[in-house]
Amino acid sequence: MATSGSKCRACKAPAVIDLPRHNANFCAEHLLQLCRRQVEKAIDDYEMFSKDDRLLVAVSGGKDSLAVWDMLVEAGYQADGFYVGLGIGDYSDESGDYVRRFADERGLTLVTVDLRDDYGYDIPTAAKVTKRVPCSACGMSKRHLFDKAARDGGYDAVVTGHNLDDEAAVLLGNVLRWDIEYLARQLPVLPARNGFPKKCKPLVRLTERETAAWCLIRGIDYLVEECPIAAGNRHLYYKDTLNSLEQKSPSSKSAFYLNFIDNMAPLLADQSAAAAGELNDCERCGSPTTNELCAFCRLVEKSSAHEPVPVELVLGKRGRS
Amino acid sequence: MATSGSKCRACKAPAVIDLPRHNANFCAEHLLQLCRRQVEKAIDDYEMFSKDDRLLVAVSGGKDSLAVWDMLVEAGYQADGFYVGLGIGDYSDESGDYVRRFADERGLTLVTVDLRDDYGYDIPTAAKVTKRVPCSACGMSKRHLFDKAARDGGYDAVVTGHNLDDEAAVLLGNVLRWDIEYLARQLPVLPARNGFPKKCKPLVRLTERETAAWCLIRGIDYLVEECPIAAGNRHLYYKDTLNSLEQKSPSSKSAFYLNFIDNMAPLLADQSAAAAGELNDCERCGSPTTNELCAFCRLVEKSSAHEPVPVELVLGKRGRS
Q: Per the database record, which ranges form the 2-thiouridine synthetase TtuA-like N-terminal LIM domain (chains A, B) (predicted)?
């Protein structure tokens, strides 16, 4: 990952990675230090949480979520993991194995939910039944169960592994449509409100190349494969677009995201508050919703009555998120 | 430009152009009608000007500026042309020929300025002397002289041929940096203020493919070649990026620009007003400026004292605008 013969900026030892956006190369130890500092800076700058808080980290078995869990535990935060079995064929089976192995080896607490076992459906079936793109049903299911697990377990904040590449790509998508409500909510921290837990993204200052390097150096085994349904979606296309811009002009990706947070997000604060509105409790599960039944309970109702749909039938029906 | 055998949406005659963003094909006459309607809509929606106003149209000899001048004259507006000889080698010589021929053939009034003859410098020399990118010195010179010509001639508004591709590319550049002051000023109309004339962009709803088709159908001879200094600048790269997005998702380019104007620009209105500030008159030329001498007079002072620099020496020193 580094040019042959290049040296660490901090200690002049042989470098293992070059980071054009920092205009520097780093050895393994100083790459870890850079990651730790960027994460601490995000936690501090955006007032995410303290060491007294109980955190629930959504983990998928991929590099980002395992990296953030590892970083938080290493730094002394109280962080449990949360995993949802989505029923996306071999992909889900493998992702669960990686997560459980990570937790077991470190003696960490892992909260798990399985869509098929616990709610009688899976993502391919939900996608087929709702005729919506699979990424939409998947995102909604994960958010709902994550929020619920945080409430049920009395956690102070939930944490996701969204990195700079993810956030910049979502931002590009929102900007291309100028969806003000979405833009106003695209923050590294969303405060608790209306029964939803506080949501934090400590990796927003790290690229996926950096989180991959973290895992490599720390010996974290993660699922490299991307979700087979998401492959080719717009989110990945936006990532490619930003990577091309970054290659032409290093650090443009972080400028795009961080300048948005610094310069624009404050101007949109009112728009977010205005959009929040009043919510009531879902009649079935008690979750906050604008309807009688929340979107998750409606999805469960429809999907659990349907016979299971094999993942192969929904490949290529990718969504934009 | 159209698929063989395709038919005009309006009259079913053979089509000469297909426009995926409108999901339609058009014959020559109905393509002209579409252009006229989009221009009238921009003029009306953004309250640009009326037929009582005297307009000064900046023309470069390229398709967009000649198209907008032609459209305005055809629609009955009082529109004179304004051309600046920039001294960019053969490119400038040819561009001047196209502009003068267009005006002569139609009996239109053309106001001209020549940087070398009238101010003792040219763009290659200015770029060399100021050590700034040539596009920066060029843009500043053109804006200054355009504003001055409008004041001197008592025009009610100045008009440029910026099209949807131009505006979307500038918007992308501004968004990537989240430069709020630039974003707040990126409007299809800037009202007159502090001695600056009202500025209007009637082509913001038309792509460059559409303005090229207008010229082709109307028999307007224009300079196809782009400025040799600007070739490869970031602006063109942003255009390519948006063209890729447009190809993947037709009408995303117009959504990006027009949703910005509709959804975001109103939220930025205060930022623009705040940035306007108070100006005084340039001691030398009387133009509004924040300094004693305006940027143009400072440029003239430096550049006119320097021996002329051939254009070849500044090729590849492109800028971002």
A: 7-31
Residues B152, B287: Cα–Cα separation, whole Å: 11
* A176: chain B residues, CB-CB within 8 Å: 245, 252, 255-256
pTM: 0.89
Q: Do B237 and A248 touch (CB under 8 A)?
A: yes
Question: Within an 8 Å CB–CB cutoff, is residue A265 touching chain B?
Answer: no
Cβ separation A178–B245 shorter than 8 A? no
CATH number at residue B284: 3.40.50.620
A242 burial level (CB within 10 Å; 0-12, 13-18, 19+): buried
| ipTM for the predicted complex | 0.86
What is the domain count for chain B?
Answer: 1
Give the whole-angstrom CA distance, residue B237 versus residue B243: 10
Q: Is residue A40 part of a domain?
A: no
CB count in 10 Å sphere of residue A292: 12
- Residue A15, in any domain of the structure: no
Domain membership flag for residue B318: no
Collapsing DSSP to helix, strand or coil, B52 comes out as coil
Which whole-number Å values give the CA distances from A90 to A97, A111, A145, A303, in the listed order?
Answer: 11, 21, 22, 20
Residue in B152, B167, B131, B27 with CA at minimum distance from that of residue B80? B152
Task: Give the residue numbers spanning the domain of A188.
Answer: 47-219+234-313
Q: Does residue A291 lie in a domain region?
A: yes
Residue A170 annotated as part of some ligand binding site: no
